[in-house]
UniProtKB/TrEMBL annotation:
Biological processes, Gene Ontology terms: maturation of SSU-rRNA from tricistronic rRNA transcript (SSU-rRNA, 5.8S rRNA, LSU-rRNA)
Name of the protein: U3 small nucleolar RNA-associated protein 25 homolog
Organism from which the protein derives: Geococcyx californianus (Greater roadrunner)
Stretches the record annotates as Disordered: 1-123, 135-159, 297-316
GO cellular component: small-subunit processome
Positions with biased composition (Acidic residues): 37-84
Family membership noted in the UniProt record: Belongs to the UTP25 family.
Length: 695
C-alpha cells in the first residue's frame, strides 16, 4: 500500500464511515461540473414538462423536522442535476500549479466521486516540535537571542506581550464582575470603530498613518517576502514611506497585531477580499512562526542544560499543537490561503521551500478552468464568490517548521487547520454521537472566519466560536453574526467592531421606475416576528393580490422555513401559484419560469438561497413582494431590476411591496439608507417611495 494511503490514528476511526452529505453540499454540487451545459433560454424551451420536482414537505405550520442542511429531509429521488460549472480566470490553483502542472493524482479529484480522507504520517518526525531544534543558519536562532538580550524589543513585540501576559487574580475577578468599558473612534480608512474591553487599564487604539515594517516585529523571512507578495495591491498612490500595506490593510493589521477581536462587516469579494485575505494570512503565519521558533529555541536550551536542572520553566506550548483555525466556505479559498503561505515563506526563486503533498493538494483543491460553460453569464460578485473549486466539505491540517511545509498533517500535529463549517461539523460531531473528535481544538489561539455571510446561505449552526481571540470578515451586518461577536468572544484584550452606517442604500441602484411600498408590522418581541409576519401577510397583503388583475406576482422569501409555510398555505387555499427553491430540479425550475412568464400561474414563491446559488433572471414580473428584507442588500435592486426584462415594459404598471419590522433596522438601512430608516422606525406608518431610475 502506498504512503499516500496512510492515515493518522487520530482521524482514521472517524473517517471510515460515509459521512452524511448536507443538502447544501448537494446544492453546491450542481455548480461544479456537468457533462452538458445549456443556456437559460435553451433550458426554458427544451425541458420536458413531464419531469417533476420533489421538495421537502411540511405541515401548514412548518413543523416538519428539519435535516442537517436547515432545509428538511430531501426526497431521495430529488438529487439536483449536475449543471453550471463555476470558476474564474486567475484562480489560485493556476499559480500553485506552475511547478507541478502535470501528474496530479486523479484519484483525489472530487469530481471522481467520494474521497477517502488522506493524512500524511510519513513526515511526522521531520515536523515534530518536540524533537527538532532551531537551525543556526536559518537566522531564527539569532533573532531569538537578540530578543532575549533586548528588553525593549521583548516588551514591545505584540506577540511577546500577548503570550507572556499573566492575568492576576484581582484582574480576573474584576473582569467577571465589572461592566466593560467602551469607546468610539474614527479611523481614516475603516471609519467608525467601536472598542470595548473588560480591562480597566487598556491602551487606547490609534491608527498608524505610516508603518515601518521593522516596527511590526515580523518573523523572518516575512519582513523580506511581504513587500513582494503584497505588491499586487499597492498602487502609485501609496506613499514611499509606506510601501508595504494598502490603507485598509494597514489599519486592519494594526488591530490584529494587538491581539484584539475584530469584526469587519465590509468585505467585498470584488474589491477588497484578496487584500484582506493577504493581511490575515500574514498575521496568522507570523504568529505560528514565532510560536514555533520559541519552542525550538527552548528545545535547544533544554538540551544544553546540565543534569538535575529544572526543565519545566518553559511554558511555551498548549495541550495540543494547533494554534490557528481558519474557517472559509470553499476549497478555492483554502487553495489561495496555502498559496499565500508558500509565497510568504519563499525568500526568492532560488530558495524554494519544501511542500509535502503539494501535487495531491492541487488535485483535491484545484479546478479546471475549461469546465466553465462558455454561455454562463452571471453578475461579477457571483463570479468572484463562486470562483474555482466550490466544494464546501473539506478540512486540512498544515504544519510549518522553518523551511518546510507539510500539507495534510494530522490535526494533532498541525499548526494551522483550514476547514469549512461543514468539514469541522462532521469531525467534531454533536452531543450524543459516538464518534467525535474535538480535543485538537483545545489550544487554538486564533480563529479567523472569512466570508461569514456565505455561511448564512449554508448552515449557520455549523459555525462555532469558543476560542482565544477571533477575526470575523463578512460582507454585511447581520444579527446572527453580530450575536456571535457580541456574546461569544471573550478576549480579555477587548474587541473592535467597525460600525459604519449606509447613507444611500441599495434602492439607489434600482434602474426601473417603480413605486416601493414599505409596510410595517408590529411584533411584541423578536421571537414573535415570524408568526406576526405570516399573519400580517395572509390577512393584509395577500388579499390585495388575489384578484386576477394582479397577475405575475413574485414573492421573495429569504427563509426556507417561511417558504414552506407559505407554499403549504397556498396549496390549502388552492391559489394559482408555482414555486422555486434551492431544492427544485432543473426541469421544475424551467417549468415554473415558463408558467410564470406566460401568466399561467399568478404567483411565484421564490427563495433567497436559490437566487444566491443560481442568479437566474426571472422574466414576467409585474408585482413584487419582499416577504422579508433580503440578507444581501444588493439582492433588492437585483430583483427589482428583473422587471426590465418584462415584455411591453413601457405599458406595464408595476408594484413593489416590502414587509418589515423594527427588528429589521440593519437590513432596512442597507436598502433605504440610515436617514430614511430612522424616519420609518419613528413614524410607525407605511412608507411610499418612488424610484425614478436616476437615483
Amino acid at each position: 500500500q502506498s504512503e499516500n494511503s496512510d492515515k493518522s490514528s487520530a482521524e482514521s476511526d472517524s473517517e471510515t464511515e460515509v459521512e452524511q452529505v448536507s443538502v447544501y453540499h448537494k446544492l453546491l454540487a450542481t455548480l461544479n461540473t456537468s457533462p452538458e451545459y445549456e443556456s437559460e433560454e435553451e433550458e426554458d424551451e427544451s425541458e420536458s414538462e413531464d419531469d417533476g420536482e420533489s421538495e421537502p414537505e411540511m405541515d401548514s405550520e412548518g413543523s416538519e423536522e428539519m435535516g442537517e442542511g436547515d432545509g428538511g429531509e430531501e426526497d431521495k429521488s430529488d438529487v439536483p442535476d449536475q449543471e453550471e460549472g463555476i470558476t474564474a480566470t486567475g484562480t489560485a490553483e493556476q499559480t500553485l500549479g506552475q511547478e507541478e502542472a502535470d501528474g496530479a493524482d486523479t484519484s483525489c479529484d472530487p469530481s471522481h466521486g467520494v474521497i477517502e480522507e488522506f493524512t500524511d504520517v510519513k513526515h511526522e518526525s521531520e515536523f515534530s516540535l518536540e524533537t527538532n531544534f532551531m537551525e543556526e543558519e536559518s537566522g531564527d536562532c539569532n533573532a531569538d537571542k537578540q530578543d532575549g538580550n533586548s528588553s525593549q524589543a521583548f516588551s514591545e513585540d505584540p506577540f511577546k506581550q500577548h503570550m507572556d501576559k499573566e492575568l492576576e487574580e484581582k484582574e480576573v475577578e474584576k473582569m467577571s464582575t465589572l461592566p466593560k468599558t467602551s469607546s468610539q473612534n474614527k479611523w481614516p480608512r475603516l471609519g467608525q470603530l467601536s472598542f470595548s474591553s473588560a480591562l480597566e487599564k487598556c491602551r487606547p487604539l490609534k491608527a498608524d498613518k505610516e508603518v515601518d515594517v521593522k516596527q511590526l516585529y515580523l518573523h523572518k523571512p516575512l519582513e523580506i517576502t511581504w513587500p513582494r507578495v503584497n505588491k499586487q495591491f499597492l498602487s502609485s498612490v501609496n506613499k514611499p514611506s509606506d510601501p508595504f500595506f494598502t490603507p485598509l490593510q494597514r489599519e486592519l493589521f494594526c488591530i490584529m497585531n494587538t491581539y484584539r477581536d475584530l469584526f469587519y462587516p465590509e468585505r467585498n469579494a470584488l474589491t477588497n477580499g484578496e487584500e484582506i485575505r493577504h493581511a490575515y494570512c500574514l498575521h496568522a503565519l507570523n504568529h505560528v512562526l514565532k510560536a514555533n521558533a520559541q519552542v525550538l529555541s527552548n528545545n535547544a536550551k533544554r538540551r544544553d542544560q546540565k543534569p538535575g536542572t529544572d526543565k519545566d520553566d518553559y511554558r511555551d506550548q498548549g495541550l495540543t499543537r494547533p494554534k490557528v483555525l481558519m474557517i472559509v466556505p470553499f476549497r478555492e479559498c483554502a487553495l489561495r490561503i496555502v498559496h499565500i503561505f508558500i509565497s510568504l515563506l519563499e525568500v526568492n526563486e532560488k530558495k524554494k521551500i519544501d511542500v509535502s503533498n503539494k501535487k495531491r493538494f492541487k488535485g483535491e483543491f484545484g479546478f479546471d478552468p475549461e469546465e466553465k460553460p462558455p454561455n454562463l453569464k452571471r453578475p461579477e460578485d457571483y463570479e468572484a464568490i463562486f470562483a474555482g473549486n466550490i466544494d464546501d466539505h473539506f478540512r486540512i491540517g498544515v504544519a510549518i517548521l522553518q523551511k518546510s511545509m507539510r500539507l495534510y498533517a494530522p490535526f494533532y500535529s498541525s499548526d494551522i487547520i483550514i476547514a469549512s463549517p461543514l468539514g469541522m461539523r462532521t469531525i467534531i460531531g454533536a452531543e450524543g454521537e459516538k464518534k467525535r473528535d474535538f480535543d485538537f481544538l483545545s489550544s487554538i489561539e486564533m480563529l479567523i472566519i472569512d466570508q461569514a455571510d456565505v455561511y448564512l446561505m449554508q448552515n449557520w449552526e455549523h459555525v462555532l466560536v469558543r476560542f482565544l481571540y477571533v477575526f470575523i470578515f463578512v460582507a454585511l451586518q447581520d444579527p446572527q453574526i453580530n450575536s456571535v461577536f457580541n456574546k461569544h468572544c471573550y478576549n480579555y484584550m477587548g474587541k473592535v467592531a467597525i460600525r459604519n452606517v449606509p447613507l444611500s442604500g441599495s434602492i439607489s441602484h434600482v434602474v426601473v421606475q417603480l413605486p416601493h411600498v414599505f409596510q410595517r408590522l408590529e411584533a411584541e418581541n423578536l421571537t414573535s416576528v415570524i408568526d406576526t409576519r405570516f399573519q400580517f401577510f395572509i390577512n393584509k397583503v395577500l388579499p390585495e393580490y388575489r384578484d386576477a388583475i394582479m397577475s405575475h406576482t413574485l414573492i421573495y422569501v429569504p427563509s426556507y422555513f417561511d417558504y414552506v409555510r407559505l407554499r403549504n398555505y397556498f396549496k390549502k387555499e388552492q391559489l394559482n401559484f408555482t414555486h422555486i427553491c434551492e431544492y427544485t430540479k432543473k426541469a421544475g425550475i424551467c417549468r415554473a419560469r415558463r408558467f410564470f412568464l406566460k401568466g399561467e400561474k399568478q404567483f411565484l414563491l421564490f427563495t433567497e438561497r436559490f437566487h444566491f446559488y443560481k442568479r437566474y433572471t426571472i422574466k414576467g414580473i409585474r408585482n413584487l413582494i419582499f416577504y422579508e428584507l433580503p440578507t444581501y442588500s444588493h439582492f433588492y435592486s437585483e430583483i427589482c431590476n428583473m422587471m426590465k426584462a418584462t415584455d411591453n415594459a413601457a405599458d406595464a404598471t408595476w408594484t413593489c411591496t416590502v414587509l418589515y419590522s423594527k427588528y429589521d433596522a440593519q437590513k432596512l438601512a442597507a436598502v433605504v439608507g440610515v436617514d430614511r430608516t430612522a424616519q420609518m422606525l419613528q413614524s410607525k406608518k407605511n412608507v411610499h417611495l418612488f424610484v425614478t431610475g436616476e437615483n
